[in-house]
Amino acid sequence: MQPPQRLVVVSNRLPYVLAREEHGSWGLKPGSGGLVTALHPVLRDRGGIWIGWPGVTEAVPDVHDILRAAGRQVGYSFVPVLLTTEEVEKYYHGYSNEIIWPLFHDLQGRCDFNPEYWPVYVGVNRKFAQVLAAHSQAEDFVWVHDYHLMDVAHHAREDGCQAHLAFFLHIPFPPPDIFMKLPERYALLNSLLAYDLVGVQTLRDRRNFVQCVRTLIRNARVRVEHNLHVVQTDDHETRIGNFPIGIDARGYAKRATAPEVEQLVRAIRERYPNRQLVLGIDRLDYTKGIPQRLRAFANLLDRFPELHNRIQLYQIVVPSRMGIHEYDELKAEIERLVGEINGRYSELGWIPIHYFFRSLSTTELLAFYRAAHIALITPLKDGMNLVAKEFCACSLDKESVLILSQFAGASAQLGRAALMVNPYDVEQTADAIYQAFRMSPGEREYRMRRLRRNVSTQNIFWWVDSFMRAVTDKGLRDFPILEEYIPEHH
Fold it and tell me: Is the separation of the CB atoms in 91 and 147 below 8 Å?
């Protein structure tokens, strides 16, 4: 009897991470981030496997039992990759987030090219590959995710992994003149070409990747085949395609109608009955353009005083990488700007910016999405930006406006119906907010209908299916929901 085909996901972190509970024992809490949000509904109840770091460097004696119990609840298995404190520091904080993250976001001035980071990055990727080889079968479809794990494929092949190996990069891929600054550029590009399929978010990212291959890999032959580029190196072929990631739009829309969400939406709107609410929501990161956005809002208040007392900015910043100097400096700058703007423009009964520095519950997040009249999503550079898509999915009344950075990957899909801005252009961003504020109900509805149609059609399941079909003749339907994995509460 042929073993069942499984979807095997490999990412830096598991979707559930270990955490100390009040009485000192270990438990699990849901992880955060766009990847977890996107892929959980795809894997749920299919009996697949998710391989990743469980989030702690301490020894947890019953880690496998804890993860096994959690897997039974959600309908797929968790396999941990255990990392030391030094590995997390040099592979994750170091190579991944002090070199690759800023470089791939065109911010090479923020890179710390410490030569100690690369060997640890390679060692951790080898460790992931060993766990993958031990837990995969030739029939599986293995999907490795993001910039932390670009070096997994050739180690997995060395360890005898026979499965299809595909990789998806969630962040932008830089053009050759920026990628060439990476000391390990040849090794990293060859690592990516060990995969059967490399997926990126946008056509621009794909062109950049192909240009880097043509520039740096001498024996590479590149051809176009259907909607893909195919790179031939020696006896291996790698397909390269762009696959913009989606969300579970129907799931977001359904959860946005929950009674507790409706109640909070009413409370927010009733508190500000004659004001339009502008929403900015970001993880604390220098790529998100938060200071530039705040300066644009100040410019709006300065140039259009008739908006005073009629508009309100909710700026939510979710804590990230606390204790790292650059992020602490960014937090201080944001708080200084909020203080200055509120100090300058506040009136009796009106404070222009409400600033939150904390994580939101799901109910709060959905309520803010629904209550906002304008979403201000202006990253300096972003692979995709799922917040923009989540906002559209939750805009059930179709009376809100999306203002979107032209440097977000989502602009390729949503740009025609959103108001597009260059986040470095403070006056243009302020003008876009003013345009959104004055936009007629009819135009708002027309634009939001188009945005919602896009995020509903090109959703997470469409993304997975199109990605899998690019490397194999099978799609998501060939990985059916398995009855034995359906939890009792279904």
Answer: no
For β-strands 236-242 and 228-233, DSSP reports them as antiparallel
Record the tokens describing residue 323, joined without a space: 């204790």
d(CA 139, CA 247): 27
pLDDT (tens digit per residue) in 232-253:
998 899 999 999 999 999 999 9
Predicted local confidence at residue 354, as pLDDT: 97
Active site residue 148: no
Residue 170 is among the residues annotated as catalytic for this protein: yes
Dig out the tokens for 186 from the structure: 């040849």
Domains of the chain: 7-245+460-480 (3.40.50.2000), 249-457 (3.40.50.2000)
Considering the entire predicted model, what is its pTM? 0.93
Give the Cβ contact number of residue 297 at 10 Å.
26
Least confident of 15-29, 65-79, 251-265: 15-29
Phi, psi dihedrals of residue 119, rounded to the nearest 5°: -60, -35
Q: Single out the catalytic residue among 105, 170, 229, 373.
A: 170
Question: What is the arithmetic mean of pLDDT over 189-206?
Answer: 96
How many C-beta atoms surround the C-beta of residue 221 within 10 A?
Answer: 12
Q: What DSSP string describes 411-442? A: HHHHTTTSEEE-TT-HHHHHHHHHHHHH--HH
- Terminal CA-to-CA distance of the chain, rounded, Å? 29
DSSP per-residue codes, 167-216: EE--S----HHHHTT-TTHHHHHHHHTTSSEEEESSHHHHHHHHHHHHHH
Indicate which residue of 140, 382, 431, 465 is catalytic.
382
Spatial distance between the Cα atoms of 105 and 211, rounded to a whole number of angstroms: 17
Q: Give pLDDT tens digits for 438-462.
A: 999 999 999 999 999 999 999 988 9
- Is there a contact between 465 and 141 (Cβ–Cβ < 8 Å)? no
Integer Cα distance of 306 and 325 in angstroms: 40
